[in-house]
């Protein structure tokens, strides 16, 4: 039994005539008759009373009719849904990103994607890079924007990693206060003398900054520590102190000013990762393209951000 046989059966039953049904289905009448005969043989029951000039359903045909209509309707619905998915009218994308990227690159990429594909449902998972890799491994997210320093994080799953951006860590201060340096750059020694706002120890940024201070024999005492990114930026805006943050978080934040570190230069790499063994959906592939184009645009807006795209 196949859909063409069911479609022929339903149309004959509706029109009560083989010839008109064949014309409606753009089939030769002998072909339609063979379809119905084959269907009757497969089901082991006659579906039509065939009288001269009149065709009607047998009890078996009457039992099959509503089921056949439901099956055809379901098949049509599946085709329509697949068409919607392929045409990006419907679908879902599950994106993971680190907290710092959720207030910088991600809003720009998601905004651009939603404008182009408003029918696609978006899910965002905000977490650190290691947790995002775990989520990729179990299929909880389709792709993730993760960060890496000089060495990429060790993953327990085969991932395809696309380096997007190299981003400097800069020292940020309140634009309402005097500049913290008369120069275009600042050293760690100078930074250690300023009131420093430190991130929670769970942040990769905290570990990177602490390691840099230790490497030059410095151990500054923060004026405040343990805050999340949004809180740190607000404290800096109010003039409570300075902080070391990724350059990208300063996009569209006129209340803050930044100065680049001269020694040592600290950078991180922004990577778009996804499972190597999973073929992306049409919506997922479209999201990747938007993220790549958004990253290229962001790199043109700040000299502390460099595109790694070929």
Q: Care to describe what's here?
A:
The chain is α/β, with parallel strands linked by helices. It is 43% helix and 25% strand. The strands form 3 sheets. Strands 3, 4, 5, 6, 7, 10, 11, 12 and 13 form a 9-stranded mixed β-sheet that branches. Helix 1 packs across helix 4 (59-86) and helix 2 crosses helix 3 (29-43). The two termini are 53 Å apart.
Descriptive tags:
single chain; 310 residues; alpha/beta; Arc Repressor Mutant, subunit A; D-Maltodextrin-Binding Protein, domain 2; 2 domains; nine-stranded mixed beta sheet; two-stranded antiparallel sheet; 43% helix; rod-shaped
List the topology elements.
Blueprint: H1 3-15, H2 18-24, H3 29-43, E1 48-51, E2 54-57, H4 59-86, E3 92-97, H5 99-102, H6 105-116, E4 121-126, H7 129-137, E5 143-148, E6 159-174, E7 185-187, H8 188-192, E8 197-199, H9 204-215, E9 224-227, H10 229-237, E10 243-246, E11 256-263, E12 267-275, H11 282-299, E13 305-307
Parallel strand pairs: 3-4, 3-5, 7-11, 8-9
Antiparallel strand pairs: 1-2, 5-12, 6-10, 6-11, 6-12, 6-13
Helix pairs in contact: 1-2, 1-3, 1-4, 2-3, 6-11
